[in-house]
Amino acid sequence: MRIHHINCGSMREITADGCDSRHAVCHCLLLETDRDGLILVESGLGTADVTTPERTLSEEFIGRAQPVCDLDETALHQVRKLGFDPADVRHIVLTHLDLDHAGGLPDFPDARVHLMEAEHRAALSAPGAHPEDRVRYRPAHWAHRPDWVPYSPRLGESWFGFDAVRPLDGVDAEVFLVPLGGHTAGHSAVAVRDADADRWLLHCGDAYYFHGEIDPDNPRVHPEMNILAQVAEVDRPLRIANHARLRELVRQHGAEVEVFSAHDPWEFARYGEM
Ligand SMILES: [Zn+2]
Question: Where in this chain does the entry annotate a coiled-coil region (predicted)?
Fold first, then answer.
């Protein structure tokens, strides 16, 4: 399987101690598989979001995140630029349905969309109890009625001590959900087996925002990103507990598992495809 790391949505510029200043990213993966065609992990901002942001994104999000809105960064355009037909994207695996993760869905209307059932329910019934619902979940992103494949948590399947939801329906490649709650109702990480490199990738979505949060030796938050994380969270104790679990994963299995999140530009820069 060939793995491409693509940024499908630059946002405001941020800086951190010891790091250069960079635009926050929407870190997505495009997987070239042997039997499942192309699989997109996360979809970033879509073509409608970057051409008419005022129609599909919320005002609050535009203010907070300051999306750059570059059409060339959308998954659709990057899939084409890599020489593929967007119709070959047969599966999209999502950590959650926040607007900056689900925005690309309408650009791949025939793909099957895999995610946790609790997230699907929360987003499609929004606005619900949480005041952030209207800001984060945007019905324009699923107005085309995607082919949803929602999953309930499964007992007994474990991956490095985390619950795993595997296999994904109709997906032969080792790509599956690892529920990591706290940010949204049904937030999940996505595990991908990179057999060629004999390692795993764990895309943590918004389970954390800044690499310092999962640094086992020097855990620290990013002041600005932490404010955004707290505004958006639905369960702080669960979110914080998951940081501790991820630090343990990195400490014990850092050689076997590469852990990264959706928006940290310094993690994205490791993969050299800015
Ligand atoms: Zn996000």
Answer: none
Least confidently predicted of 42-46, 50-54, 123-127, 258-262: 123-127
Measured in Å, residue 6 CA sits from the centre of ligand 1 at: 15
Burial of 20 (0-12, 13-18, 19+ CB in 10 A): exposed
What's the gap in Å between 55 CA and the centre of ligand 1? Answer: 19
With respect to residue 143, please indicate whether it lies within any of the assigned structural domains: yes
Closest alpha carbon to 38 in 164, 171, 151: 171
Question: How far, in Å, from the CA of 263 to the mean position of ligand 1?
Answer: 7
* Domain region containing 230: 2-269
H-run or E-run covering 225: helix 223-232
Do 47 and 107 form a contact (C-beta atoms < 8 A)? yes
- How many angstroms is it from 246 CA to the middle of ligand 1? 18
Domain count, the chain: 1
Residue 39 located in a structural domain:
yes
Is position 274 within any domain? no
CA nearest 146: which of 115, 100, 177?
A: 115
**Range 137-145 average pLDDT:** 97
The CATH number that applies at residue 34 is 3.60.15.10
d(CA 227, CA 125): 26
User: How much is the average pLDDT of 128-147?
Assistant: 90
* Integer Cα distance of 173 and 52 in angstroms: 35
* pLDDT higher than threshold 70 for residue 274: no
**Residue-wise pLDDT tens digits, 54-106:** 999 999 999 999 999 999 999 999 999 999 999 999 999 999 999 999 999 99
